[in-house]
Amino acid sequence: MSLHSSRRYIESFNYIYTPSSPSYPNLRQSFQQNPRWLNSTSSRPEFIVTPYSEAEIRAAVICCKKYDLQIRVKSGGHDYEGLSFLCQVPFIIIDLTNLRSISVDLEDETAWVDSGATVGELYYTIAKNSDVLGFPAGICPSVGIGGHFSGGGIGTMLRKHGLAADNIIDAYFIDVDGRILDREAMGEDLFWAIRGGGGASFGIVVAWKIKLVRVPPVVTVFTLHKNLDQECIQLVNIWQNVSSKLPRELFIRLVFQNSNRDDNGDQGMVEVLFNSLFLGPVKELIPLMEKSFPELGLDSKDCSEMSWIESTLYLQGFKSGDPLEVLLDRTVQDKSYFKAKSDFVEEPIPEYVWEALRGRISEERIGILILDPLGGRMDEIPESELPFPHRKGNLYNIQYLVKWTVDGADESERHVNWIRSLYDYMEPYVARSPRSAYLNYRDLDIGINKPGDVDYSQAAVWGSRYFKGNFEMLAEVKSRIDPGNFFTSEQSIPPLNHPG
Ligand code: FDA
C-alpha cells in the first residue's frame, strides 16, 4: 500500500490527523508555543499523531521508517527554535499530549511522569499528594516534561538539588526499531544520554521515574525592583561574587528588563529584579542575608512566606490568591514571538559592561536578561556525570531573550539582529573555551547539521558548546542506538563517523 492510498485508512484512527482532518489546523497552531513559524511550509507535517499508548508510538516509528518519513517528537512544544514541529523534508509529528499521566509513590518518594505532562501538572500533582515533597524543575508551568527533562531542567531549587535531569532514576524509551526499553534494558550509556543530551537525537522517551525532594513547610520569596543606576550596578557586582556561594537553600536570580513596556516608542528605564526563593522561613532568611549580602538591604516586609507549591505560582508571576489550577494551563503565559540565546559566566563581568547593557536593553521594548546563579549542589556533580557539563567553575547562566508581538519578516529580523548584536558584545566577558550554551535554550545560530551531510566534526562546533567533552560520548551512544541516523534534525547528535 502506498502512503497516499493508505491515507483514508490512516484517518480512521482517532489519534491520527492528516492535513484534511478538521482538527489539523488547530492542532498545528496550538502546539507552537513560539508562533514565529506558523506560516512556514516546514511546519506542515504529513500527519499529526497523538498517541494514547506506547504501542501507538511504536507503530508510528515503524511506519515512518518504512515510508521514509522523518519524525518530530513534541511534548510541550516550547523548543526555542521549533525543532519539535519544524522539518524541511516530509515528516510526521508525534504529539505526546495524550500521554500525560503522573503517579506519585509517597512511600518511595518517587513519581512516574509521562513526557506529555507539563512541569505545572507535575508540581500540581505532587502538591495534591504531599506538602513535604517537591521537584527541582523549571519555572514556567506550561513547559513539557519530555523536552525539559531530556535537555537538563534549570529551576529555582537547582542550588539545593541540581537539575531536573539529576533527579531522574528510570525511564521508558522507544528506539528506532520500536523496542520499548526501561533503564535496565537500555543500559547506562543511553540512560545517561537522554538525561540532558536531548532525547530526540536517540528516540522517544515516553515516561520518566523521578526522585522527589523534601521541601520545607514554609518557604520565603521576595522580588526587589531596582533601577539600573550606579548603586544597582554595585549590587549586581556583589551578587556576581556571592550568589553561587550562598547557602544552597537560597536562590537569588536577576532579571534585567526595560521597565517601560508601553508601546509608545519611548526608550525606557532599565530595571533589575532581585527575584528569590529561600527554602525556609523569613526569620532564617533575614540573618542569613545580613551576613552574606547586607548591601541588598533586605527587610522582612519585602518577603512573603508561603508553601513551596504557592512559590511556584509566585515565581511564574501569578497573582497572590490565584488557584493552584493555573498550573494546569498548557499554553505559555503571554504567548509571543521570541528569540533567545545563552551563556555561562566563570568570572565576574566588569562594571562598565552593565552600564553598556543599560543602553542596549533600553533599545528593545521586551529585551530581557535572566541571570540564574549556580553553585551549591551543581558544584558537587562532576562535568561528565550527565551530558550537561556546566558545573563547578561556573558562577551563573545568562539567558538573553527578546520578544515581540507584531508578525512579519522585517519585524522579526530587527529583533533577532538586536539579540545577535548583544550576544556578540558579550563574548569577551563569558565562558569562552568553548563559549558555552544551554541545550534547553536552543540556539541554531551556534551551528546546525547540514541537511543530508551530517558530519561529526562539523557538529562538534555547536555540540561542544552545549556539552563540552561529553559531546563525543553522546555521538558514541548515538552510533550504537541509531547508527543509520534515523532520528535527525538541525541539532541532533550525529553518530561518530556516519557516512552522510
Ligand atoms: P518541545 O516539545 O518543543 O521539545 C523540545 C525538544 O525536545 C525537541 O527537540 C523535541 O523533539 C524533544 N522532545 C520533546 N519530547 C520528547 C520526548 N518525549 N522524547 C524525545 N525527545 C523529545 N528551561 C529551563 O531549564 N528552565 C526554565 O525555567 C525554563 N522556562 C521556560 C519558559 C518558557 C516560556 C519557554 C518557552 C521555555 C522555557 N525553558 C526553560 C526551556 C525548556 O526547558 C525547553 O524549551 C524544553 O526543551 C521544552 O520542552 P517541551 O517538551 O515543552 O518542548
From TrEMBL:
Belongs to the oxygen-dependent FAD-linked oxidoreductase family. Gene3D superfamilies: 3.30.465.10, 3.40.462.20, Uridine Diphospho-n-acetylenolpyruvylglucosamine Reductase, domain 2. The keyword Cytoplasm does not apply. InterPro entries: BBE, FAD-bd_PCMH, FAD-bd_PCMH-like_sf, FAD-bd_PCMH_sub1, FAD-bd_PCMH_sub2, Oxid_FAD_bind_N, Oxy_OxRdtase_FAD_BS. It comes from Dorcoceras hygrometricum. Residues 40-215 form the FAD-binding PCMH-type domain. The keyword Transmembrane helix does not apply. It comes from the Eukaryota. GO terms for molecular function: FAD binding; oxidoreductase activity. Pfam families: BBE, FAD_binding_4. Its cofactor is FAD. PANTHER family: OS08G0158400 PROTEIN. Pathway: Alkaloid biosynthesis. Keywords: Alkaloid metabolism, FAD, Flavoprotein, Glycoprotein, Oxidoreductase, Signal. This is FAD-binding domain-containing family protein.
